[in-house]
Amino acid sequence: MFYKKVNLNSDKACFEFLTTHFEYDTMNSWNGLKSIANNVKVYNLPVDYEKAMEALEEDQYFSINQTIRDWEEEHPHCSVGFNGRSGGYLVLYSADHNGHVFEKDGNSPIHYYRTDYEEWKRDVQATYGSLKAYHDELIWQVKVVQDFDKLCDDLVNVLKDLIAEYNHRKELTKPYSATLRFQRYYYDTIEDLKLHMLDMKRRGYSVWEYSDSDLYAEYEMNEAIDSEITLDEEGDEEFVC
């Protein structure tokens, strides 16, 4: 969805990939500070929006955040964060001292902020002596952005897995209505037993059996209980809530 192949042997292809990549205003549109980004708003992704939001709420975004942290560990020079009013954009930043390394502004040491390829070539040649001298740096930039795009694809797949797991748990959960027939109570004294028996009779319950010596009484309750039951993989009852 986000990842794109790039001809790494072509400086022009690399330049065009970087200059045409989606970007986001990282602070405010008026300051011109932009960075490589992708629009990852859930309603724009190939998933069911309602189920996705329910699955994310249940997971508390743990799986999403863990996937990003794993990626950052593999790319220690980078950081990734959500931006936008509703956090709908995933943005690529630099994690080192140069905070503008992936941002398109006039002060960036990376030269892909220029939109004209020939102008960019002249600037690179003037700075580095030749395009060949800058080639490794250019390839590094492209690969990092490609890895970032693949991360976004991986996050979509993580979300799909969360939805599948959520749906599976929902399928194993079903409502039920049961009747609690009997309830046994134990008492500290015979006086407590007798008082409670009188109270239960006044409330319409029948005494099923009781024992003065063992200090217990059992009542026929006849109360319906609505709840839900979750089955395990074999279809057996796992727990009742």
Radius of gyration: 32 Å
Q: Please state the structural category.
A: alpha+beta
Strand content bin: 25-35%
* Integer tally of domains: 2
Mean pLDDT: 82
**Main beta-sheet strand count, sense and barrel state:** 4 strands, antiparallel
Unreliable stretches covering 5 or more consecutive residues: 97-101, 105-109, 235-241
The number of distinct β-strands equals 8
Overall, the morphology is rod-shaped
- The number of distinct helices, counting runs of at least 4 residues, comes to 6
Gap between N and C termini: 40 Å
Can you write the helix and strand succession as a string? HEEHHEEHHEHEEE
Strand arrangement within the widest β-sheet reads 1-2-4-3
Roughly how much helix do the residues carry, as a percent range?
Answer: 40-55%
Output the keywords.
4-stranded antiparallel β-sheet; rod-shaped; alpha+beta; 8 strands; 241 residues; single chain; 2 domains
